[in-house]
User: Which sequence fits this backbone?
């Protein structure tokens, strides 16, 4: 829960705290109460005066200019002497299931009780007064002990921190304070037992508790004895009505007994809370339209249908005497106020039904369900996945490549389980066909995290609509579609980089406005080891390398898989145990990273080399090769050439009698290729060194023209 506190009673800046019991602010000794009050109001006092309310401007105290906007809890003061030895027993007896969260002692030595709410309650300022009355009634504030201070419920009231914070209960359930809000919406004095309860519910209660005393159907208009009075007299004395028993026997003591009078307030409250809980779980309002959640899909419903459904739920459509609204109208008002939303979208990495983002209240319709980990993660319970993964990858360093994969997947799985925003690299799987790359991405990885969606069209720029992508945490690009979909490597690079680096996406469905939502899923690419497929790998320059995890699938990896039906069943049964093992597995220190991706990026050297060799950038390497040989032909002692790219271009054209050499006329293409060469040379000493230095607003490039860096023909055996 969130409290707001000011440092003195003249201060207007409200600070935030989640646990006031941990704050310690001793009070100086005062001779008189007047000295204490003067100290409280002194602008130089640095203390804690708290409220469970939040103003429209959260960082400012509640005032006429900054009215209450949210209720986080209720505070009640009791200005009377207290028997501290027996107070907890008394509180429990009077509060029942609605125990206060905290009991504290005021400066004067009196009792103060604090009910923290299970969740913040949005409220309009004009409804707070009536809400206070209703919650006072529901919580039995006046009867707990003597001396209840009505001003405790004043929205502008701030309470001195007090001492001896003692926790005696849990946060107040949502259903309790929403019930108070419903009653407040009716703008009527507090009512006890006049919620309309369907007669069949009452009938079940009568038959359960007093069936031995009531004969025949318990329905409106039926007559019978005063069954709740156990005096041995069974003669007729009352008649069933909608809201209670009309009594015409003086043994009843009064002419009307409500259901609360007969069965107790708990019976009525339990029904109210159940009804309100169902209401606020199902219906939402965006300022114009009402929506109902059906299988986690928000479906628009007309107001007329909402009215019918509310009536079916037990809300009375009739306006009762003295009340401005019927129960149906009051329920609609509650939905309109409390369940107001601005957007509807899946927010995969959040457990909250309502996600507040940049002033928007997003109704979270995510249905992602990751695999729940089993109790035992021993590899004996996931033998197929264990054996398969440990032989799947090519090892190009002293550390097994599979450990980089485990570290990457562990972070991903933990994030989706906890619904936490933890970014991670795009995973690129490169290798021969029929080795299980798609099986790994679509069934193992995506199976763990609750499913996947094909992102080829979106990440290739062929469509801007990503409704299906927003609903999952795993975006897959299969090796069967990648080569044909990603014709523009530069465009693909930028889109993939954006998906990896940006912790949110623009969620856009057809015929709807886009909305920015949090998203920290993963992009997984499966590529064959051929020139066409490798050409779509994002450019491996310094701005991208940390955003990629490129693993080489071994040529010797097994291609022998059981039949699909058996394979699917095996993976399904093993995934919970594999997930448990991942959670328990400790990432090696050499792989762990404290950067934003949590895991050290790994790019297999063969993938890096093949990607470069098969990219459009390699064409620039051939231009440089032609240039170097021509330079040596003019000066066999020349070791390096130095100049701008424009000078390089002009010289290159002179070498070719003024004609273009390949794409040499495209200076931007040459610039990008030279940068790629420079980057590649840092990791591969066999590549001809190309270096640049900024000078005068541009760059001066140095190219080694030495023969030892010449591209050699492949050896034929």
Assistant:
């Amino acid at each position: 829960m969130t409290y707001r506190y000011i440092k003195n009673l003249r201060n207007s800046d409200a600070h935030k705290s989640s646990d006031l019991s941990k704050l310690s602010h001793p009070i100086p000794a005062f001779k008189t109460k007047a000295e204490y009050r003067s100290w409280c109001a002194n602008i130089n006092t640095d203390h804690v005066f708290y409220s469970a309310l939040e103003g429209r401007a959260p960082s400012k105290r509640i005032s006429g200019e900054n009215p209450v906007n949210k209720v986080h809890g209720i505070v009640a003061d009791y200005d009377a002497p207290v028997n501290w030895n027996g107070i907890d027993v008394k509180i429990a007896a009077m509060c029942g299931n609605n125990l206060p969260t905290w009991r504290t002692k005021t400066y004067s030595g009196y009792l103060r009780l604090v009910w923290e709410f299970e969740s913040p309650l949005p409220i309009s300022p004009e409804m707070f007064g009536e809400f206070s009355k209703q919650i006072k009634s529901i919580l039995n504030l006046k009867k707990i002990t003597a001396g209840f201070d009505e001003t405790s419920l004043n929205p502008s009231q701030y309470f001195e921190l007090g001492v001896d914070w003692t926790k005696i209960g849990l946060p107040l359930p949502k259903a309790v304070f929403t019930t108070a809000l419903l009653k407040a919406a009716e703008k009527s004095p507090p009512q006890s037992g006049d919620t309309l309860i369907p007669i069949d519910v009452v009938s079940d209660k009568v038959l359960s508790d007093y069936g031995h005393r009531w004969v025949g159907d318990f329905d409106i208009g039926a007559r019978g004895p005063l069954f709740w009075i156990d005096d041995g007299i069974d003669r007729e004395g009352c008649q069933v009505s909608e809201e209670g028993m009309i009594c015409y026997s003086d043994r009843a003591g009064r002419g009307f007994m409500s259901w609360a009078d007969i069965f107790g307030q708990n019976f009525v409250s339990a029904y109210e809370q159940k009804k309100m809980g169902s209401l606020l779980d199902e219906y939402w309002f965006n300022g114009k339209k009402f929506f109902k959640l059906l299988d986690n899909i928000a479906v628009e419903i007309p107001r007329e249908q909402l009215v019918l459904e509310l009536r079916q739920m037990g809300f009375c459509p009739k306006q009762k005497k003295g009340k401005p609204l019927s129960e149906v109208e009051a329920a609609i008002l509650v939905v309109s106020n409390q369940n107001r939303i601005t957007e509807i979208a899946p927010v995969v990495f959040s457990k909250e039904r309502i996600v507040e983002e940049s002033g928007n209240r997003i109704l979270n319709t995510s249905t992602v369900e990751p695999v729940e980990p089993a109790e035992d993660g021993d590899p004996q319970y996931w033998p197929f996945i264990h054996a398969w993964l440990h032989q799947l990858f090519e090892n190009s360093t002293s550390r097994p490549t599979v450990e980089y994969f485990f570290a990457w997947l562990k972070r991903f799985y933990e994030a989706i389980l906890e619904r936490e925003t933890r970014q991670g690299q795009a995973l690129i799987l490169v290798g021969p066909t029929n080795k299980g790359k798609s099986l790994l991405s679509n069934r193992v990885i995506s199976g763990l995290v609750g499913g996947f969606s094909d992102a080829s069209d979106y990440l290739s720029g062929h469509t801007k609509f990503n409704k299906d992508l927003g609903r999952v945490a795993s975006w897959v690009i299969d090796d069967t579609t990648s080569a044909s979909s990603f014709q523009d490597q530069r465009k693909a690079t930028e889109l993939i980089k954006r998906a990896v680096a940006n912790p949110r996406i623009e969620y856009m469905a057809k015929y709807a406005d886009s909305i920015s939502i949090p998203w920290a899923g993963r992009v997984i690419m499966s590529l064959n080891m051929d020139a066409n497929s490798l050409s779509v790998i994002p450019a491996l320059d310094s701005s991208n390398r940390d955003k990629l995890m490129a693993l080489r699938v071994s040529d010797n990896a097994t291609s022998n898989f059981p039949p699909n039906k058996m394979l699917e069943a095996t993976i399904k049964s093993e995934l919970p145990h594999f997930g448990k093992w991942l959670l328990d597995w400790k990432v090696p220190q050499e792989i762990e990273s404290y950067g934003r991706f949590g895991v050290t990026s790994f790019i297999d050297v063969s993938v890096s080399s093949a990607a470069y060799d098969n990219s459009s950038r390699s064409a620039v390497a051939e231009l440089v090769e032609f240039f170097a040989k021509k330079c040596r032909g003019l000066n066999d002692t020349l070791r390096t050439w130095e100049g701008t790219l424009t000078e390089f271009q002009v010289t290159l054209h002179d070498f070719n009698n003024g004609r273009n050499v390949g794409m040499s006329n495209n200076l931007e293409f040459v610039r990008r290729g030279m940068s790629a060469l420079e980057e590649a040379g840092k990791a591969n000493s066999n590549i001809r060194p190309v270096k640049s230095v900024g000078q005068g607003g541009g760059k001066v490039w140095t190219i080694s023209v030495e023969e030892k860096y010449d591209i050699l023909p492949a050896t034929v055996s």
